[in-house]
User: Fold these one by one.
Assistant:
Number 1:
Amino acid sequence: MTTRTQLAATRPRSSLSRLAVWCALWCVSSTIARAEEIQQDFRTFKSFVQSAPDRVLAYARVKPLDRSEELDRQALEAVEKINRYTHLTEMPPPIHWADGLGSCAHPEAGLLIDRQQLVQLRDAIPAEPFPVLLMFVIAHETSHMRQYKECGRGVLFDVNRTRELELQADILGAAVVMTVGLREGWESHQRGVTIPAERISGTTNFLPTLGRLIGHPAWEDRTAHPRWDQRMIGSIVGYMGAMQKIVGENFIGLTKDGKTEQAEAVLREFTDYDRRNPFMPRLDRESLAMERGFDWSARVARVMVQDGFFYAEEVRKHRARNSVPEP
Ligand SMILES: [Zn+2]
């Protein structure tokens, strides 16, 4: 089982490399890992993103995926499901194995996923169903593809926004896992439907574990990744928000179908959840539209990376504003 201590024992010498080992389980800055081995062209994240896709793929010594292999099939399936249910990208992005590089995303070359990282994660979190973990990693990187499209590739060069963008990718990653699960037939007992208990405990228990595994005080550096508690809370809010969005969409569908009574019941459920939990996606009842997942996650991430952010306090203030008594 890989532990932080073991990871520390293997960490390379340069500070960039150390940062990457500690921080970059699925992060863009992992592309600057192993600086001593990296060609001049790829010394910085900026030069990586600005490079032509064929140069990136050649450098990363990528391997194409082969659907006859089990892991490859699971990864391709994850990419397709993410596209089918969440439309983070217009088309499913290209995906390649880039072992030892650190998982990352290039605006044209697509997703570069590091199988060594996947194995480390799988071994560290054995209770977690591996396809869920895999989907989370792929969804996180696919979120970066969406960020390139929405914000331009330049936004990722702004070191003051690194934590915010990484946290948004965590929020969206978790939201995708939940959305795919719900769309494929999981159901929530709280939200009017029933999710098999083993699926829920399997997927929700791994976020705190993951957070502890990848957490390190070096992340306090404003140019690095969010703290582990921020990533953990962000992921959990991602789960909750995805569920809330589906409830809101149910309301919209029922309203459009003229099923007023059922729609009102679902709306009460939606509103009650919203009053109790901050950072949920918004429902516009006039235009019958839910807030876009990208806008919602950006809005939430922006607040969560602020100095002094404290989730429990946000919940308390939110409930006080809505006159909801604490349990
Ligand atoms: Zn990332």
Number 2:
Amino acid sequence: MLSRGRRIYKVQKELLGYNHRKSVVLSAENVSPRTPPDGAGPASPNKHVVVVGAGVIGLTTALLLSELPGYSVIVMAKHMPGDIDIEYASPMAGACFMPFSAPGTDNASWDGSSWYQFKNLALNHPEAGVSFQEAEVRLREEDLNHLPHKCAEYSLLMSSSYAPPCTKIPPGIVQTTTFKTLVINPSVYLAWLVARCIERGVVFQRKKFEHIIEVKLSLPHDSVFAIVNCTGLGAASLGGVDDLNVIPTLQQFVVVSNEASKLIFTSGSSKTGDEMCSVMNRPAGGGTILAGPWHLSHWYPQVDPNAAIRIMEQALELDPSLNVDGKGIGGLNIMSHEIGITASRPLGTRVQMETLFDTWLIHNYGHGAAGFQNSFGAASACVNFINNNRDIDPLTQV
Ligand SMILES: Cc1cc2nc3c(=O)[nH]c(=O)nc-3n(C[C@H](O)[C@H](O)[C@H](O)COP(=O)(O)OP(=O)(O)OC[C@H]3O[C@@H](n4cnc5c(N)ncnc54)[C@H](O)[C@@H]3O)c2cc1C
């Protein structure tokens, strides 16, 4: 028995032909913004755009689109800010900027443009829950080639201050780098994005879709000009997308009220070998995050008590200032044990456009552990694409 969405999709496919597999990757190069002619606003009525997903990616895309004239933007999602659910990555994030993206890639370019936006928020909008924090990255020799070792170049890209490696290198570590980074309190920031969207007329509707074609039919009286698919993990099971390259990636962390001296990331330690660990203070009362390693293909949403103990021991080794009066783990004021799962995509983040019959379908998902630092850049790529194709009928693109 086919679901409603799949039945409608089958009928439309027969009537119009199956055409939505033509796709173009939206890289930084092919989506430069189009400047409207002087003083000219859009002559045609508003175009309806549905953004599916209310994580940091969907909300940022909706916000940027709402800043352009001529669009009515609706965010439809199963989860909204304020919800906590294992399938909803954004509220669980650290979140900070870290040099994960290889220089020269789209992800690095998105990080770069996002940095300027978040830096502006840290400097001018304290209510957004973003602030600067000193950061130190410590790497073992075996991790130099596949972990964030480009801190110097990265901090240049981010116009951040960069300090050469410190002289006191912990045992087993061959490289340490310090620089200034940005940290984000996800609950405060997501709420801030919703408020800015509502101010600009974006409408929010709670909805779960079984198939992408249902989104096209979601506005009873109006046609949908474009759909932006920001479903994160949902892209794996959403009919018509069914992206089997989306892989759940899990991180366990402990939230404490003790304050860390700065953000510290290590690729491993003498105590726990391979396991990476990090500590960071979330701004605006978000607590201090003690985080363990990432586990690819992990879909088991249970806190592991042994892992929690290892994380706390590593964190104390990483930042001795957390070791209150030498009490070890006993001196940590534990607020909660948590896990978060994000959508990784080994083939690369999917920022790509297709046509879905007479509607543009733009994908923006699979940001792995970098959704916040990618958010503005990737959302701009999608929004520029929509605006550059404002007068083009998707049916002519088959
Ligand atoms: C523990 C942890 C730490 C992290 N730390 C960092 C960090 O330090 N820095 C950083 O940049 N990033 C970090 N990340 C990654 C970042 O959180 C994610 O990349 C980002 O949140 C992904 O956002 P998203 O909007 O794509 O997905 P999500 O936040 O998962 O949102 C998906 C949205 O789509 C909706 N949806 C899905 N399917 C459907 C459907 N069928 N119908 C309707 N709605 C649907 C959901 O309801 C939800 O609203 C971290 C992630 C985790 C888990």
